[in-house]
Amino acid sequence: xxxxxxxxxxxxxxxxxxxxxxxxxxxxxxxxxxxxxxxxxxxxxxxxxxxxxxxxxxxxxxxxxxxxxxxxxxxxxxxxxxxxxxxxxxxxxxxxxxxxxxxxxxxxxxxxxxxxxxxxxxxxxxxxxxxxxxxxxxxxxxxxxxxxxxxxxxxxxxxxxxxxxxxxxxxxxxxxxxxxxxxxxxxxxxxxxxxxxxxxxxxxxxxxxxxxxxxxxxxxxxxxxxxxxxxxxxxxxxxxxxxxxxxxxxxxxxxxxxxxxxxxxxxxxxxxxxxxxxxxxxxx
Length: 284
Hints:
The chain is mainly α.
């Protein structure tokens, strides 16, 4: 493996930080079925931790990531808990998320809604702090890959000096903390980003498969659940969260300005922007 040294360094950094932050044997991991959270869970297992894993899907709508999280858990001896997120009363949740949690964008709304149920389950299981694969600074999106391709040195430098979390991720941290759950994230550790500056070409990131620099740390375990060459969709997009809020477009008390232009994504974005700013959010 070309980057075996980097793999080992990343593993050591994660082991040190998790060992330092989680002294108890039992830990809770929010598991999406993707490379980032799976790596965190496997690091915990390698440290001798008893891993409780939690994932979710909307009631009546299964998704690949949640099923994969369950498979990963079964094969690695994790205590898996599947959270079934309600698929009714979008109007009440829309207003609650905007008024009580101050969501102002569509991505915040969709990220936070299921996360509140994840936080509730974590609390029920006796945890106040959970591990996650959030805040990964690696260029896995189309935009990120473009920025990396144009100027890899600047890309990594920006990860070191800028706050990488998206507005959606920030809202999940904030909302979960309000429910008594602190979410930890380690993949944005400056030491890890510094190691990644040695990756300067797209092929360094993508060959022989995406995120090999993480997956090769536990190559056999990733291969056992068919995750080496597979890119996860992601719970938010793959979990059909947008479909939960789409009925509000036909609700005259919510969509009172009659947003009809564009696709559902654009219309819901307009709706959240409308209600997420005074005075509309206080109409009733």
